[in-house]
Each structure stands twice: as C-alpha cells, then as structure tokens.
Specification:
Elements: H1 4-22, H2 28-62, H3 78-99, H4 107-117, H5 124-139, H6 147-164, H7 169-187, H8 191-201, H9 213-231, H10 241-244, H11 252-284, H12 294-313, H13 323-331, H14 336-355, H15 363-384, H16 392-408, H17 411-422, H18 428-440, H19 462-472, H20 475-478, E1 488-489, H21 494-502, E2 508-512, E3 518-523, H22 524-528, H23 542-545, H24 559-569, E4 573-577, E5 585-590, H25 591-606
Parallel strand pairs: 1-2
Antiparallel strand pairs: 2-3, 4-5
Helix pairs in contact: 2-5, 2-6, 2-7, 2-9, 3-5, 3-12, 4-6, 4-7, 5-6, 6-7, 7-8, 7-9, 8-9, 8-17, 11-14, 11-15, 11-16, 11-18, 12-14, 13-15, 13-16, 14-15, 15-16, 16-17, 16-18, 17-18, 19-24
C-alpha cells in the first residue's frame, strides 16, 4: 500500500531527477555551481564536526579525567585516564551495532573503497554514525584524527546530492571526492592540500584522479572560506611566529641528513602500517569477544599507555590526533629519549585504536609520528654536527610531511598540506626529498588497503579502459596466418561442404563466386539445420543455405567498432575484406581474437616501463 508520505517522497525525488537532467555535467558552469554548493555544505559539516570533537574532548578527557594533554598532568585522575578510553570504545561499539553501520577502518579508506568498488555510494547513516563515534573516540582519549571522519562526512554529502539529482555513477564518484575534499580542506585549513589529497589518495602509485581536480578545488576552497568565516582563520597546527619565521633549508650540507630521515621514515612507516594491519587482524580473530566490545578492549589498552610512560614523558601523552606532540616537536621542547619513547607508543596507540574498531582517521596521528621522528633526527644531528647550526624544528616539520607522504601515498598533497597547515613554505625542497625517498622505498604497502595501483586497476575505470584500449587497436594489428579464412565456392555441394567443414576449425565460412568475390556466409548453426538431409547431399549447394547479408570489416577498423559490430549482429566471426574491394575476403576475424588482443594489450600497459 502506498501512503501519501511515500507518494510525496517519490514526487520530490522525480523533481530532483528532472532538475539533475537539466544540469548535464558537460557544462563548466554547472561544475562550478554545484561544487561550490557542495563546498558550502562540506564547510558547515566540518564546523559542526569540529565543535562536536572539541566539546567531547573538553567534557570527557578534559573535565572528567582532568587533563587535555592526554598524559598524566598534575590534575589528572589516573583511574579515569585508564577507564575513559575503554568507556568511549564501549559506547562506540554499541552505537555502531544499533545503527548497523558498515564503517570499517579509517574514514578515508572507506571513501577510497566507495569510489573504486561501490560506484561512489555512501549511505547517509554511515556519515552520521561516523561523525558521532569519531567524536566519542577522540574525546575519550583514543589515538585518532579528524581527517578520516570529516572526509567520509563530506563524501556522504556529495554522494547523497548526486544520487538525489539522478546523476550517473561517474558523476557520483566525482562528487564523492569533491565532498571529501571540502571536509579536509576546511577542517585542516588547507584548501589546496584538501583539493589535491583526495584525487591523489585513490591510488598507491604516482597517479591522480584528474577529472576530479576542478570540482575538488572549488569545493575545498568554498568549504575553507565557509569554515574560517564561522570559526575564524586559525591554523590547524599552532606554531609561534618566531619559530616559523626561522625555519629554513640549510642547503647542500643538510641534504644527506634529510636523505637519512627519508630512510627512517620508510623503515618506521613500514613498521607502522604492519602494526596497524596486524592489530586489526588480531582483533578480528577474537571470535569469542563480541564485535561491539572490541573498541572497549582497545580503549582499555590505549588508556594504559599514559600510565606506563608517565614517569619519563611528563605531561606529553598519546591521546587524540597528536597535534600537541607536533607543536612540542617543532618547538624542540622534548628531549631525545622522550621523543624515542613517544614515537613508539604513539604508533602503538594509533594501531590499537584503529585496529580494535575505534572510529577516527590516521592522518593526524601519522603527522605527529612523523614530526616526532623528524625532531628526533634533528636533535640527534645537531649533537653530532654542532658546526652545521642545524634547526631541529625544520626536521620535525619535514618529517611530519615526509612520513605521511609515504604511508598514505600522497607525496604532493602531503607537501602542500603541511606547508599550508604550518604557514611555512621555506622547506619545500627537503619536504620533497624526504617524500620521494619514502615513496620510492615503500611501493609495496600502504596505510589505506582500499587503494589500487593505478586507474587501470580500478573498477571505476574498467569501461573507460576497454574503450580506450580497443580504440587504439585495429584489425590489421591482430591479423596473422591463423586468420586466413576457409572460403567455400557457392556451387559446392552439401556433401563436399561438410567434408571441408569437418577439417576446418572455423565456425563461420565465407561463400565466394567463381571470381573469388564474397556473396554470402554461413555458420555451423546454419549447416546443422540441414546436415541430416541425406537425399540432398549432392543436390543442395552452398549458395542455397548461405546468408546473403554479410557484415564485413576492413583492416583499418578499430577493434572497438568491431566489438560493437559483433554484439549488434550476435556473431562470433566476421570476414575481413580489402579496403579497395569490399567483396575480396582477405581474413576471418574471430571474436576471441579481439578478446585476446585486449588482454595482451592490457597486460603490456600494466608492466612497468624500464
């Protein structure tokens, strides 16, 4: 039974679909308008999520546990520092079970999976649940960041809008990325970095989703403007101006140290990704522990870390995204032994939080790990080479971008985002050096399992590449000696025809006249209908049962057009005729030959070029 509410909803959906048909996505103006609208919505969503996270941190870890640092400061309650992450994990598990949400892992990985595997679809419920559970995870002391949740929230907005307007799967994927870029560009104060991050993070190799650049730039910029208009223009990472102004690249003498930092980023990055994977697999193997209880168990383990390290890390902790650690590393206020401890325990806390099912992203924790590693290298190099006048803060900033560039496979976006977030562009050269070294040494793993190597491997581009690959190949490219046809003279008797066919491997046989010109064609199916007519074996000739209407192709035809002709005519072989004489048969092209050529060409494209 259809009620008035259902009818009204259907009419509203039809109106939106008709409106969407007016805006065919070929228009540049339409891209600008819709991407700007999406950016405004994404910016508002980022504002709400940021306020929700701040409120959660202040009223949970702040007021209840007695600290906003994540460590055991003077006013902190050790028992609550231990219990709050576990209670937060329990609430997260219960919410997700009640909402039947399919959120799995970091929000960014879910966005990548949605692009490649789910035609850009994100359920509205997932975005809402992700925002709420991430705020609880972070606010209760979990080691997670806001990048994943805000990207998934923005992606959900973009996906829902494109579905409401009745856009195609391709356009839904683009709006998915534009929405994710809006959230990241706004929340992290990095409009250009946010616009580049999502198109780049889709792939494990050095690839971009080029079609998404324009909508992502527009949506990220508008989202950033919306966010700053409401909450003010504050950088995601607050660094004293006197430190920022003195961050410079020392030139040739420092390059060797930065190369070493890139090597350490690759080693630690590989260990960090392996730890996240192993922890996730370990919690998944806990079949006797209900799934909704696993985030609570992970929270209890994370809550115990501040109690373990409190004696030698003072008020520095491993909770939240880790921006406090970033700022301390950039200011050089942490000693080398403490940096080493924080480095290991922050990586462990993040792996446990994410692996146990806690909600949140891995971008901010990765930045903090990289900053601590860079600060560790900078302080160590300063002691080893006092004559070089090294600045440990510069190494901390470079480590921050270089570490995430490799683990997230976003070398360009990471460099831009770190520069925008800190307000310093003087270290672009060492940032690029460390990022490239890390990328070169980390091609076999990634923090985002849903990434694919290149567009060629993405289901989102399967149709594009079939057309592109077949369009680039022609009939002449795959003709060989095996393509030589078995020609049947039109006056050949049925008996003789059956003898010829029995010794041939073809399924289709062109019929020619005395001048060897094409006059028809028959298949094994045509022959099968009459081969039992024994009294007609020497009476019926090929010209009697052939089909006179013959579809032909020439050597210059593209395999894309040939494949369409195969489908339209429902045949498995086509005669190839001379371009100078359309009745001269020079070959027979089989449908399997086209499929084999496509597979071979695809394989050659996948092979790395020397």
């Amino acid at each position: 039974m259809v009620g008035p509410e259902t009818t009204s909803r259907e009419r509203r959906k039809e109106r939106l679909a008709r409106l969407g048909e007016r805006f065919e996505l070929s228009g540049f103006a339409k891209w600008i308008a819709l991407s700007a609208a999406l950016g405004a919505l994404g910016g508002l969503a980022a504002v709400l999520f940021s306020l929700l996270v701040d409120l959660s941190k202040e009223h949970l870890f702040g007021r209840v546990a007695g600290t906003l640092e994540g460590g055991l400061t003077g006013g902190a309650n050790p028992a609550l520092v231990l219990l709050l992450p576990a209670l937060g994990g329990l609430v997260v598990g219960l919410i997700e079970r009640a909402a039947n949400s399919e959120r799995d892992g970091s929000g960014t990985d879910a966005v990548i999976r949605s692009f490649h595997r789910m035609k850009g679809r994100v359920r509205k419920r997932v975005a809402v649940v992700t925002g709420l559970t991430s705020a609880i995870t972070i606010g209760s002391g979990g080691s997670a960041g806001q990048e994943g949740p805000v990207s998934q929230i923005g992606a959900g907005i973009g996906s829902s809008l494109s579905t409401a307007f009745g856009f195609s799967d391709r356009d839904r994927r683009l709006f998915l990325m534009a929405g994710a870029s809006a959230g990241i560009g706004a929340l992290f104060g990095s409009p250009l970095g946010g616009a580049l991050f999502v198109p780049e993070v889709m792939y494990r190799r050095e690839e971009f989703e080029g079609d998404a650049i324009i909508p992502c730039v527009v949506s990220s910029s508008v989202a950033y403007a919306t966010f700053t208009a409401i909450l003010g223009d504050e950088r995601a990472i607050s660094i004293p101006k006197e430190i920022v102004d003195h961050l410079t690249f020392g030139g040739l003498f420092e390059i060797g140290i930065y190369f070493f930092l890139g090597l350490l980023c690759a080693v630690l990055g590989g260990a960090f990704v392996a730890a996240v994977g192993a922890t996730t697999a370990g919690f998944e193997r806990m079949s006797k522990v209900p799934k909704f209880l696993r985030p609570a168990l992970g929270g209890a383990l994370v809550g115990g870390i501040p109690l373990i390290i409190a004696r030698f890390t003072a008020d520095h902790g491993v909770a939240f995204g880790g921006y406090g650690l970033v700022e301390s590393a950039l200011q050089g206020s942490i000693a080398v032994p403490i940096l080493a401890a924080l480095l290991l325990f922050k990586a462990a806390a993040t792996a446990i939080t994410v692996g146990s099912g806690g909600a949140g992203g891995v971008f901010a924790p990765s930045l903090s790990i990289g900053a601590v590693l860079g600060g560790f290298v900078g302080l160590g190099a300063e002691r080893l080479f006092p004559g070089l006048a090294l600045d440990p803060a510069a190494f901390a900033l470079v480590g921050m971008g270089g570490f995430f560039a490799g683990v997230g496979k976003t070398p360009i976006a990471a460099v831009v985002m770190v520069s925008e977030m800190t307000g310093n562009y003087a270290l672009l050269a060492p940032l690029m050096i460390v990022s490239v070294v890390h990328m070169a040494l980390s091609t076999n793993w990634s923090l985002y399992p849903a990434q694919v190597n290149r567009p060629l491997d993405s289901p989102a581009h399967t149709g594009d590449y079939i057309v592109d690959v077949l369009q680039s190949l022609h009939v002449s490219d795959i003709l060989d000696s095996s393509s030589k046809p078995t020609l049947i003279p039109e006056d050949t008797t049925l008996r003789r025809t059956m003898q010829i066919v029995s010794n041939a491997r073809d399924t289709h046989f062109p019929v020619v006249n005395v001048d060897q010109e094409l006059v028809g064609i028959f298949s094994l199916n045509d022959l099968r209908r009459i081969f039992l007519e024994h009294e007609a074996l020497d009476v019926v000739i090929a010209g009697d049962f052939m089909r006179e209407q013959v579809a032909t192709i020439t050597p210059g035809d593209s395999l894309h057009d040939v494949q369409r002709l195969f489908t339209r005519r429902a045949v498995s072989a086509l005669p190839v005729v001379s371009p100078d004489n359309p009745r001269e048969v020079i070959a027979l092209l089989r449908r399997n030959d086209v499929g084999r050529a496509y597979t071979d060409r695809l394989q050659s494209l996948k092979e790395p070029t020397p």
